[in-house]
Give the backbone structure.
Amino acid sequence: MFPGILALVPALPFLAFVVIGLVTRPWRWLSAGVAIAAISVAFLLSLGALSFLLTAGAETPRVVELTWLTTSTLNAHIGLRLDALSGIMLVVVTTVALMVQIYSLGYMSEEPSLSRYYAYLSLFCASMLGLVLATNFLQLYVCWELVGVCSYLLIGFWYDRHAPAFAAKKAFVTTRFGDLGFLIGLIMICTAAGSFDFVEIQAKVAAGTWTAGWLGTVAVLLFCGAAGKSAQVPLHVWLPDAMEGPTPVSALIHAATMVAAGVYMVARLFFLFSASPDAMQVVAVIGGVTAIFAALIALVQDDIKRVLAYSTISQLGYMMLALGVGGMAAGMFHLFTHAFFKALLFLGAGSVIHATHTNNMWEMGGLRKKMPWTFWTFVAGSLALAGVAPFAGFFSKDAILHLVMGKNLFLFALAVLGSLCTAFYMTRVICVTFLGEARAASGHAHESPWVMRVPLVILAVLSVVAGFWHAGFERLVQGGEAEAEGLNLGFAAVTQMVPLAGILAGVMLYVLKSPDPDALAVRFAPLYTLLKRRFYVDELYDWIIDRIVLRCSAGLAWFDRHVVDGAVNGVAWLTQQTGTQLRYVQTGRVQHYALAVFGGAAILLAIAHVAGAF
Amino acid sequence: MPADIAFAMLGVMTIGGALVAVGAGNLYRAVLGLMLCLVGMAGLFLLQRADFLAVAQVLIYVGGVAVLIVFAVILTEREGEPLAAAVNPRMVPAALILGAGLTAVLVSVLWRSTPAESPVADVTARTLAEALLNRYLVPFEAVSLLLLAALVGALLIAKEKES
Amino acid sequence: MMDVRSFAVIATVVFGIGVYGALARRHAIAVIIAIELMLNAAVLNFVSFSRLAAPGSAVSGQVFAVFIITVAAAEAIVALALVLALHRALKTARLDRFNMLKW
């Protein structure tokens, strides 16, 4: 039965996309129902697949493939690959997608083009699930770009407003930079291997077909794609802007699933990355730097969604860091837990925004009483994110820190510092948003409807309990051979101090006001401004684009307009002139035409005669 | 050999008639040349024992088509448009070269071919009729349809527009 | 002298004369006369060459000839009708006055 039946998992959401687009578009709620029904079945199938893996074991991937196209040099397949990685990702994606789609019923209830929204969401789910189940590079790449397109469509969902349209474009173009590297790497490896297939390429890598240096180049190029998709420094700039999209979309795409695709890709191609220590080093350093870099920026953001966005970047950095130091299971486990609690946080933030109609935290405040469900689930998510025991984030982050400490003390220091920042900024968000006294936008706030609360509660439960699956998860991913590393209690006790310190600092600043945060901002004005302006990365990019790219483009545009277009227009002009001249051959006299006919016949006859045909 | 003499006379008559048909300035004279040529052809058919064809040729062409052409000439005759300007001088050289050239190529092809033993086949009106009404029945009927269509079409084209 | 070749030569000559007439003559009816000449040359060829066919199938050539005569008659009718229509519309039957078949 498995994995063939899993074809339904991406197929059903795709079908929902088609049906919504072609049939149910005029009926918003029917469209929503179709999308939710499709993802529900996909969710159940994914659960079935995971439980199948847990009972039957996941040592060897189970693959079914269909031939897509055949050429003399390459055979492209399209298929389904069920192993530990894809099984877990299936559950993550479908769970979050289901929660988000149910939640959207409430959050987007006043949206007139709800059908379009659910159509895009379904298309996204289909592409993402196709990506997860990919058996080869080609399928991976196609789905990779498809999720990028869906991300573009959903960020720019309110395309009639300037900011979302711009953000969508920015996201698309920025990830395209990474994808260029991805594509080059893909072409290199697939040409060298003569195949797109993961299994075949893995066998060749294992057989030592290529040198570590060459593999490292390929791996780093492929990592460019992952860095773009997972918003790693320096390609992180699109993710904060992507918050212009609807909040449930941010939860699904820009927190739990699509941005994790980069991590998933590295994990999927771990055989390739781990063959080159240098590439692993690059992954680890980029991940570590991203983790602390984004966490620092998150400290001073005012927009609740942007805090979460930078937090997402930071956590993705942790995952990359884990992968880079060889902890594939740890990285994937963090992806697993992060998906739940970050989706929860985004949905909670969405609930708050839904109630207050603003993104600015400083206009909220005192929402704890008015929105108790949202508050408590948000706190659960925050504790999980901060890594407080026994919430889910604790287990995954602890595993990462433990791994990194054994490999690289500098990166370990960065990671610990990032962890401190994480706890601090989440405390800040909670204090400013939910505690204290009500500010301008909180006056008329009220708790969200139950369709929004139910997903929050479910995700909150998952955020609390998901961590306890730690050992089982590791066994599943490591394939049973490597023994699962147990929880190191002494180490955990020490690292546990870090988030607690962060929370304490947050409470001191934002509840007790000693020291007063505003005073601190003034005192450390240069640092504060640097963070507030997000290390000037966007400004730097703008400068580069304005000064260098656009000037080169102007030159190229001139070349295009005058030389390339000139050539094209010249050919057209030549054709036209030839035609104008030649049309005088058409005299309009029937006897001239007859002359041509007879003359042609005579010439042909004469040629045949001379050539001796008869 | 009386047959050879007949052949020579008929050949001269045919070619001469054709020359008159394309050379005469007066269209009536040209039609007469055409008739002469067609009768010569009918004689050539007779020499090859194609009796039915010879008769049909005389009846249809000489009797029908030629008369029709005469009617057309009468209908299109206009004053102030002298039929004397029968040929277009600018086309004459090209037409001469082409006509002569085609004839020359074809004749030289014929000349090179080896003369074959060619008995005169004995095709009577009876065998022709049997062929037409058995083996070639469908084309035969199709041709009758074509004739009908041509008739109706010609009427439609030539009719005065009512207005 | 009575072999197929002699007949074919006569047919060829008549055909060539027809080509000349069709190209050089000004009057539409004269062109039709020339076309009739060409068609008749073809008929003569069919009749002559049918003698070279296997005994028993010589009739095919004559059947062809019958068809050509018939179709030629139909063609003549239509062509003459066209000439009449042309004459009515343009007040001339001279082909060199008629140059509308162009761009």
Residues 62 and 82 of chain A are 5 Å apart (CA to CA). The radius of gyration of chain A is 29 Å. Chain A touches chain C through eleven residues (CB under 8 Å).
